[in-house]
């Protein structure tokens, strides 16, 4: 059984790590361009604050959530528009993000066992929502770190991102208009603490191996596979590394290979 309390604790820790990263630099640094086209550091935090707000609606007022989706002027720009709407000076946005994520955590902790929350094109348990928020916070935090020139070491919280990365194996193909493979893939990842995280059948011929951090960077499309120490054995595993995406919706453009090993700026 999934431990929701532990998930929410990890979400809080992931958020606090990013909070410390953006609270320290001067407000001007919130205008720095991140690797996401058109998004500054401020946009990244605004996006997280907006998504927490929408998730809170899903957890507390399903009708309001559905109304937000149905009345969106341009559904294709809903996420970008949300970031733009929530964008504000750091002195205003940072407290808003803090209050919103605290409210969401409280709401998720009170979702009845077995309850499902409406979400974009699906329904999610409180545990799945918390896991998705960990993934998003880490992924967008990576963009912020890149913009600020900060290298963040991997933590045990990456287990949640890796888990989602494996769970979205089939979706990664269908999102790109390709049939989901029926061939199983084994994933073996070297965790930050020296442990090994494994997913899939142990006897699968197709395999992906490498550092857990690199796998998470790949499935969140924060790095091109050419810049990562991931090895693929078998045609299905190899094809997966070209299309992997942990997030829902249409395929993203991905990131180009880094020049001379430099992080994006």
Percentage of helical residues? 40-55%
- Strand/helix succession: HHHHHEEHHHEEEHEH
* Largest sheet strand order: 4-3-5-6
Sketch the major β-sheet. 4 strands, mixed
Global structural class: alpha+beta
Rg estimate, integer Å? 18 Å
The coarse silhouette is globular
Span between termini: 41 Å
Instruction: Please count the helical segments.
Output: 10
**Which strand-content bin applies to the residues?**
5-15%
The total of beta strands comes to 6
Query: What value does the average pLDDT take?
Result: 94
Uncertain regions: pLDDT < 50 for 5+ in a row? none
Written overview of the protein:
- The protein is α+β, with helices and mostly antiparallel strands and 265 residues long.
- 51% of the residues lie in helices and 9% in strands.
- The protein contains 10 helices and 6 strands; from the N terminus they run αααααββαααβββαβα.
- A 4-stranded mixed β-sheet has the order 4-3-5-6.
- The protein is globular, with a radius of gyration of 18 Å.
- The chain starts with a helix and ends in a 22-residue tail after the last helix.
- The model has no long low-confidence stretch (mean pLDDT 94).
Key descriptive features of the protein:
alpha+beta, 265 residues, globular, 9% strand, four-stranded mixed β-sheet, single chain
List the helices and strands and how they pair.
Elements (H helix, E strand, L loop, with lengths): L3 H20 L17 H20 L1 H9 L7 H9 L3 H20 L7 E3 L2 E3 L1 H23 L9 H10 L1 H6 L10 E6 L5 E4 L6 E6 H8 L11 E3 L1 H9 L22
Parallel strand pairs: 3-5
Antiparallel strand pairs: 1-2, 3-4, 5-6
Helix pairs in contact: 1-5, 1-6, 2-3, 2-4, 2-5, 2-6, 6-7, 7-9
């Amino acid at each position: 059984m999934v431990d929701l309390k532990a998930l929410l604790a990890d979400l809080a820790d992931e958020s606090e790590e990013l909070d410390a990263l953006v609270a320290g630099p001067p407000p001007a640094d919130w205008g720095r361009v991140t690797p996401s086209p058109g998004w500054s550091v401020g946009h990244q935090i605004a996006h997280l604050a907006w998504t927490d707000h929408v998730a809170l609606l899903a957890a507390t007022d399903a009708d309001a959530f559905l109304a937000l989706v149905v009345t969106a002027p341009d559904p294709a720009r809903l996420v970008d528009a949300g970031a733009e709407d929530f964008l504000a000076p750091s002195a205003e946005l940072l407290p808003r993000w803090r209050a919103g994520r605290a409210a969401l955590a409280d709401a998720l902790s009170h979702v009845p066992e077995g309850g499902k929350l409406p979400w974009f094109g699906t329904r999610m348990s409180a545990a799945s929502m918390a896991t998705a928020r960990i993934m998003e916070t880490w992924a967008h935090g990576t963009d912020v770190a890149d913009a600020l020139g900060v290298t963040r070491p991997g933590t045990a919280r990456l287990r949640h991102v890796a888990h989602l990365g494996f769970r979205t194996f089939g979706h990664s193909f269908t999102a790109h208009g390709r049939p989901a493979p029926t061939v199983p893939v084994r994933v073996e990842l070297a965790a930050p603490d020296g442990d090994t995280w494994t997913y899939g059948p142990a006897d699968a011929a197709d395999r992906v191996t490498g550092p857990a951090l690199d796998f998470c960077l790949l499935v969140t499309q924060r790095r091109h596979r050419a810049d990562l120490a991931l090895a693929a054995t078998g045609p299905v595993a190899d094809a997966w590394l070209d299309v992997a995406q942990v997030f829902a919706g249409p395929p993203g453009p991905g990131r180009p290979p880094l020049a001379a090993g430099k992080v994006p700026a």
